[in-house]
Amino acid sequence: MATEYQSLRIEKAEGLAEVVLIGPGKGNALGPDFWREMPEVLRELDADESVRVVLLRGEGAHFSYGLDLAAMLESLGPLLTGQDNTAYERTKLLQLIHQMQGATEGLARCRKPVIAAVHGWCIGGGIELIAACDFRYCSREAKFSLREARVGIVADLGALQRLPRIIGEGHTRELAYTAGDVDAERALRMGLVNQVFESPEALLAAARETARKIADNPPLVVQGAKQVLEYCADKSIEDGLRFVAVWNSAFLQSKDLTEAFAAFMERRPPRFQGR
Fold first, then answer.
1. Cα–Cα nearest to 141, from 190, 191, 189, 201
2. CA 81 to CA 98: how far, in whole Å?
3. What are phi and psi of 182, to 5 degrees?
4. 136-183: per-residue pLDDT in tens?
5. Is the pTM of this model over 0.85?
6. CATH number of the domain at 8-215, please?
C-alpha cells in the first residue's frame, strides 16, 4: 500500500514521479509535515529503479507561499522568542535548520533529474526548493519572491548558494536584499526559468512532455550526465574532463548501449531498461 502523506501527493506513471505540494497550509505553505516528509519521499524516489524523472509542482492556484510560519510556531517559537537563550536552544534551532535543509538537499542530490513546474506564487521556501531542481518551467502568471528578508530571516535552505550558479551574483543579491517580486518574463530573462507557458495547463503538459523525453533515454546515462554536471560545477575544465573520462571508462558498457546500436541498425525506437 502506498504511503499517505499530509503535505505531498506522489503520482507515478511510466518512469515519471510527480511530487505534488498539497499544503495543508494555504497556498501549499511548507509546514512541519512537509519538512519531515519531503526528505523521506526523495530517498524513496531516488532508490526506486522504476522512477527515471521527478516533476515537482503545486496543487491548486499556486506553487507555494513558502514557509508556513503559523504552523511552524510550535517548533520555532520557543527557540526564537523564549527567555532562555542558551546553548541548548541554539543547538535545537541548528538541528531544526539542518532537518529543513534535508528537503532541498534531497532534491539536489537525487540521482534522477528533477523538473520544477511553477504556477502562481513561488515565495521564500518555494524558491529554495526550485533552486535545488535541475531546471524550471513556469506559466505566464507565475511570480517569484525570495521574501525571507521581510520576515527577519536570512534564506538558509540553499537559495543563496545555488541561485548564483543559475541567475548570477547580481540578480541573486537583488532578490535577497530587496525581497522583491519577479514576474515570469523577468524570471525568463534572468535565467531562473527555461521557458514560460501561457497557462498552468500548458505548463504542466510541457513539463510532462519534457519529462517523457528524458525518461525515454537510458536512465544510467542521464544520471551519469547529472553527476558529471554536479561534479564539474566548481572544478576546472581539465578536472571535469578527467572525471567524465573515468566515468565513461567505468560505465559506458551497458545493455542499453547495445540496444541503442541495435535500434539504430534496425531503424526502430530503442527500448532502454536501465541495464
1. 201
2. 20
3. -125, 130
4. 999 999 999 999 888 888 888 889 999 999 999 999 999 999 999 999
5. yes
6. 3.90.226.10
User: Please, what's the b/e burial string for 176-185 (b: 16 or more CB within 10 A of its CB; e: otherwise)?
Assistant: beebeebebe
Residues 180/206/195/18 CA torsion (nearest 10 deg):
50
Strands (DSSP E) found in 4-74: 8-13, 16-21, 53-58
184, amino acid identity: A
Residue 63 grid coordinates: 506553487
Torsion sign across C-alpha atoms 144, 130, 184, 33: negative
Q: Cα separation of 213 and 26, whole Å?
A: 33
Q: Is the dihedral of CA 160, 99, 134, 198 positive or negative?
A: negative
Residue 43 DSSP SS3:
helix
Residue appearing with cell numbers 538558509: 156
Domain ranges of the chain: 8-215, 219-266
**Neighbour tally for 234: CB within 10 Å:** 8
Q: Tell me the CA distances in angstroms from 271 to 48, 215, 258, one per residue in order.
A: 19, 11, 11
Query: Using one digit for the tens of pLDDT, what is the confidence trace for 45-94?
Result: 999 999 999 999 999 999 999 988 888 777 666 656 556 667 777 787 88
In CATH, the architecture of 219-266 is Orthogonal Bundle (1.10)
The cell for 132 is 535545488
Residue among 3, 2, 251, 214 nearest 114 (CA) = 214
